[in-house]
Specification:
This protein has five helices and nine strands, in the order E-E-E-H-E-H-E-E-E-H-E-H-E-H. It is an alpha/beta fold. The protein has one domain: TIM Barrel, CATH 3.20.20.100. It has a five-stranded parallel sheet with strand order 3-4-5-8-9, with helices on one face. A two-stranded antiparallel ribbon has the order 1-2. Helix 1 crosses helix 2. It is globular, with a radius of gyration of 16 Å.
Length: 182
């Protein structure tokens, strides 16, 4: 086992009690080719997850739309019950089409369903961090992020989400959001 804990340091989420090692694990490639279906070798995927955590990784970046549903189920199978200091960071805002396409999923119902899918497939009663992903696969979109963030804020008030993050947004979207919060 390689001890990675101290190679990149750690940080605290702003004003919060969660300390994350900068060396995390991105679970997207645990799914099969094209981030679709199960991996070619499920046992190897489970071994990779266990080795990552044993090496000092204390945050995993995932989403229930990887696979779809594959990576979160693998994470649960490999390392549940989770270590007390493990932070699972997931994403919502997209879904996979039957043709393996990536489709925006930013309506209230799609976001609520995505949070519940993540909770169920990870075996959790709350999500540590949920990143709202907007825009396309390679670049941010221009749509307003206020409405989807309102949905996630409501889920946070319900206790299903501890922290909300943003993924693939523009500076303009962030500034507009900040102005609306004043």
């Amino acid at each position: 086992m390689i001890e990675q804990k101290h190679l990149a340091g750690s940080f605290n989420l702003s004003g919060k009690s969660m300390t994350l090692n900068r060396m995390g694990y991105g679970a997207m490639q645990l799914a099969g080719p094209g981030v679709w279906g199960p991996p070619r070798d499920v046992n190897a995927a489970i071994a990779v997850l266990r080795e990552a955590v044993e090496s000092g990784v204390n945050h995993i970046d995932t989403s229930d739309y990887y696979g779809p549903h594959v990576t979160n189920r693998l994470i649960k199978q490999a390392i549940y019950p989770y270590a007390k200091d493990l932070v699972i960071v997931t994403k919502v805002g997209a879904r996979r089409g039957p043709d393996k396409s990536w489709i925006h999923a930013l309506s209230q119902q799609e976001l609520v369903d995505a949070v519940h899918d993540n909770l169920r497939n990870l075996g959790l009663d709350h999500l540590d961090v949920v990143n709202l992903r907007v825009g396309g696969i390679t670049e941010p979109g221009q749509e307003s992020i206020e409405e989807p963030l309102t949905v996630l804020a409501d889920l946070k008030r319900q206790g299903l989400i501890r922290h909300i993050g943003l993924s693939n947004i523009t500076r303009k979207q962030l500034l507009k959001l900040e102005q609306s919060q004043r």
